[in-house]
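Methods — Computational structure assignment.
A single polypeptide chain was analysed. Its primary sequence is given first, followed by the predicted tertiary structure written as structure tokens.
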Amino acid sequence: HSLRRRQRQMCIRDRIQTAVILTITVLMVLVDIAAFMAWFQIPLNAVSLVNFIICVGLAVEFCIHIARAFTIVPYGTKKDRDSRIKYAMTTVGDSVFKGITMTKFIGVCVLAFAKSKIFQVFYFRMWFSLIILASVHALVFLPILLSLAGGKSYVDESMDVEPRDGNSENN
């Protein structure tokens, strides 16, 4: 009974460890966005605050896929942090870059040519900063932090994915 309880506590601690790293990364993106708002002289008002709140969700969107792929791995993937981050970056890193970063980047670049000052200041500058900062944090900083201090992995045997690039435990 006490062994199960101890294992459950360790499992929760490992989940919290990765969640804290994810939270720190998202908070860093938000602090950086606030700094860019000051640098671009974007005033705090209803429009900028709504955009800032939206930035929270978008920052999570950039990071959560990497953290999930790091945490939940298919059967046969090595359990060490470096192998899991390599797995995460090879399976979802490209999707985060192409599917999230580039699509948002193309959409936001159109706003650079808007004649309306509100679109240039509150949308283009803020969202352009968010895309650059969140993608760098999700694709560079978060993987480094997870490889240094990420929590344990959980095997999802229902995943139909072959281990990539020598990440198999049998190698």
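Note: The chain has a mean pLDDT of 86.
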